[in-house]
Structure formats: structure tokens, C-alpha cells
Amino acid sequence: MKKNEGDKQQSGRVEGRVAGKVAVVAGGGQTPGDTIGNGRATAILLAREGAEVVVVDRRIESARGTVAMIEAEGGNAWALAGDVASEPDCERLVGETLERSGQINILHNNVGIGGSDAGPAHIGEEAWDRILSVNLKSVMLTCKHVLPVMRSQGSGSITNVSSIAAVCSVGIVAYKVSKAGINAYTQSVAVGNAKYGVRANVIMPGLMNTPMAIEGITQALDVSKEDLIRRRDAQVPLRGKMGTGWDVAYAALFLNSEEAKFITGVALPVDGGQSARIG
């Protein structure tokens, strides 16, 4: 990632859009790669806009890498190891955040996998269970343990990252079902917690140039990065170019800011118009 890659998008922004808030970013580390991932970009951007960011990742060194980037810019963040598909870990991360920071104002769920997936006639039971657990159960567990905190505060914002695969035709059934489940679950959270002042929304990324997508698919399909990027770019209507982690991050920043205080229960595509083709 180029230094301050996201800075060019900041002209005209409102300063301190999440100032004074404590934001938990689940999946705030990332796999190695040439670009920045959705979770890391979101953690950095929330910190730039004034939040204290708790970077949660199963791989603590990756979380610490994100924290180092935030601190290098003068931001406030700390790393926490945790598997958000584990209920004891979710209980612990909420408890440790409250003990250290005193509140939780933002929860951003970015954890997701898709390997070993297949079509309906070929999906294996083990792959199905693993993908549904990591992608969907993790969202349920983090929300379950954060919601009582936000209810008691009388406010809070949750953003769950799903995918346009939830609404578009794809050949990988477990991933699609898990992401559609996130959309449905988030709608239930939004409706059930509106009276407590808690908002919940979904971000649906399309084809993104992130390490998990490019490095992961390159290895799985045994193709060159250049060929894969060309193929993916060609599928995007808007300028024929994939999005980046910063595009997801800016959507998360808006949805978690007071600018979106009357927005809850939405599923926002961030996809360069790709999902519009289903209309």
C-alpha cells in the first residue's frame, strides 16, 4: 500500500466525524498483500476521524500491524487477539474493551472467508459449517455481546460487511448464504434495537482489489495477479476498475457517523454498479 493512499479522498470532509467514540473493528488485521484490506482501511480511517479503535484479529501480529499504522499517524488504537466465531472470545473482547475504554460506540464486523466453497450439489459439510460459522455466526456473537452495552448507553452503530454475492448470482453457495444471512440478521438487529437508539447497517462490497481477494484467488486458481486483476476489472461497470479497501472504509465511516443518524436497516452496495445489473 502506498503511504497515505486514502488521503486523496479526504478533501472537503467534515473533521472528527467519529471523535470521542470507541470503535471495535473485528477483522482489523489482514492477510499479506500489495494493497490494503477492508478491515485495516476501516480501522485507520475511523482513527483518523477521531475514534479510539480496538483492532480485533485472530492473528495478533496482524492487528498490531494495523495499530502501528494508526499510531504512526498520531491516532489512538490498541490490539486485541480474538476469534469472533467463539462466544467466550466475544465475551472477553467486550469485557476488556469496557474495562480499558469504558464504552463501545461502534462495532464493525469485517471477518469473512470463502475457501473450499462449491455449488449446491458439491458443497462439503465441513466447508459449509466452517464458512457459515466464520462469516455469519461471528456477526451474531459479536452483536449479541455488544448490544446490551449499546442499549444501556442509549446509542450505538453496527456495520456488518456482507457482499453483493448475497443478491447476485454466484457459484459458491455457502458464501452466498452466509452473506445473505448477514443482511437478514442485520435487518432484525436494526428493527429490534431502534427503540434503544442503536443503528445497524450492512455494507455489500463488490469486486475489490484487496489482499484476501487477489492473493487468495490467485493461489486458488493458479493464475497470475495481473490476469486476475484484468478479469475482475472488466466486470465492473464504473470505469472498469475494482474498488479498494478505502471504498469500504469510507462507507463504514459514513454509516457510523452522526451524518447517518437516521439511517438503519439498509444494505449498501459498494460495487461500482455491478449489483445494479440484477435490476
Helix-strand layout with pairing:
Blueprint (H helix, E strand, L loop, with lengths): L21 E5 L11 H11 L3 E6 L2 H13 L3 E6 L5 H15 L4 E4 L15 H29 L2 E6 L11 H21 L4 E8 L5 H11 L3 H10 L10 H12 L10 E4 L9
Parallel strand pairs: 1-2, 1-4, 2-3, 4-5, 5-6, 6-7
Helix pairs in contact: 1-2, 1-8, 3-4, 4-5
Question: Could you give a short description of this structure?
Answer:
It contains eight helices and seven strands, in the order βαβαβαβαβαβαααβ. The protein has 279 residues and is α/β, with parallel strands linked by helices. The radius of gyration is 18 Å and the shape is globular.
Count of distinct structural domains: 1
Q: Outline the biggest β-sheet.
A: 7 strands, parallel
Q: What is the general shape?
A: globular
Q: List how many beta strands DSSP finds.
A: 7
Strand order of the largest sheet: 3-2-1-4-5-6-7
> What order do the SSEs take from the amino end to the carboxyl end, as H and E?
EHEHEHEHEHEHHHE
CATH architecture: 3-Layer(aba) Sandwich
Regarding quaternary structure, what we see is: single chain
Helix content: 40-55%
- Specify the number of helices: 8
Give the end-to-end Cα distance, rounded to a whole number of Å.
35 Å
